[in-house]
Structure formats: C-alpha cells, structure tokens
Design goal:
It comes from Bellilinea caldifistulae. This is DNA polymerase beta thumb domain-containing protein. The radius of gyration is 17 Å and the shape is globular. The two termini are 20 Å apart. The protein has a five-stranded mixed sheet, with helices on both faces. A three-stranded antiparallel sheet has the order 10-11-12, with no helix packed on it. 26% of the residues lie in helices and 29% in strands. It has two domains: 90 residues, 2-Layer Sandwich (Beta Polymerase, domain 2), CATH 3.30.460.10; 69 residues, Beta Polymerase, domain 3 (2-Layer Sandwich). By secondary structure, it is an alpha+beta fold. 27% of the residues are buried. It is built from five helices and twelve strands.
Length: 171
C-alpha cells in the first residue's frame, strides 16, 4: 500500500518542485488529489506545457526536456515519474501536441471515476458526446478525425454538457 502524506505537506512539496520547473514552462499547475483538496495525498501530480526550444534562426527545435534533481522511475516524452527525497512520488504530465491543456488538466485532476466518465461516451454512461473520442490527450471527431480545441478545462466540460465542476467535487 502506498504511503500517504498530509495535504499541507504535499502542497509545500509540490510548490517547491513547481517553482523549480516553472522557468522552463509556458504553463504549469498542480493537479491530482492536491487540487481536489484531499486530506491525505499519495502522490504529487503536476501538468506542464514546456517552452519550445528554438535554434539560432528562431525555428522550432523541439521542447525543453523537463527534469528534476531526483531519480526518474519513468522518463518518457509526455510522462515522467520521480521519487522525491520527501518520500513521495511526483508524476509530471507534459502537454505536447496534439494534447490540449483542458483535457489533460481535467483528467489528471481526477478523481479516477470522474476522469473515466469524462472519456466515456454518453451512450455508455459517461459524459463525452458520442461523436467524439479522447486520443493522445485531445478530443477528436469520430467520423472526420478533426481535433476539437480545449485550451481550458471549462471548454472540455462545456463540450460534455456538464458545466464547471469544482475540483473538490470531482470524485
């Protein structure tokens, strides 16, 4: 069983690492159970959009590789997991195209059942309109594959017809 720490300690720890990563990000936020204000936290989840690195001529040359001074258990392009010295894991979710912030931030805020309903079509008891599918962190039209832009969580929620739901109320 995973060890949990009090919310206050998790918030302080998450803020420390968010500050380390922020200079290398276009956008970065704490998600997961901290954002949902759970009294005990099993891991820290941070969602980030890295700054794009450009060459001498201003051309895009890839994304800055976000890393922390802690051992990485997983070190993928879009997902990294670290064992922090504070005794808790940090999960770093990196929003790269075609992923959209609104989708990733909502799903990573959770809770697990709420996130599952967000990606499940209405005909199967979820929130997602049946004309769409969530793939690669973005919403795509089932028939033509067109990507629907969801720069904010509210855009995703409005598509689902559920309106804004406070993180504390997402279970």
């Amino acid at each position: 069983m995973k060890t949990k720490i009090p919310l206050e300690l998790a918030e302080r720890t998450a803020s420390k690492y968010l500050e380390m990563l922020a200079p290398f990000c276009k956008r970065i936020e704490i998600a997961g159970s901290i954002r949902r204000r759970k009294s005990e936290v099993g891991d820290i989840e941070i969602v980030a959009i890295p700054l794009m690195v450009r060459d001498l001529f201003g051309n895009p040359n890839g994304y800055f590789n976000l890393s922390l001074p802690a051992p990485a258990i997983k070190n993928g392009e879009r997902y990294k997991q670290y064992i922090l010295p504070e005794g808790i894991n940090l999960d770093l979710f990196i929003v790269l195209p075609p992923a959209e912030w609104g989708v990733i931030f909502a799903l990573r805020t959770g809770g697990a059942e709420f996130s599952k309903k967000l990606v499940t079509p209405k005909r199967y008891g979820g929130f997602l309109p049946s004309a769409y599918v969530v793939r690669d962190g973005a919403i795509h039209h089932v028939e033509n594959g067109e990507t629907l832009h969801t720069p904010e969580e509210n855009d995703f929620f409005n598509l689902c017809g559920i309106g804004w739901i406070k993180p504390e109320e997402r279970n």
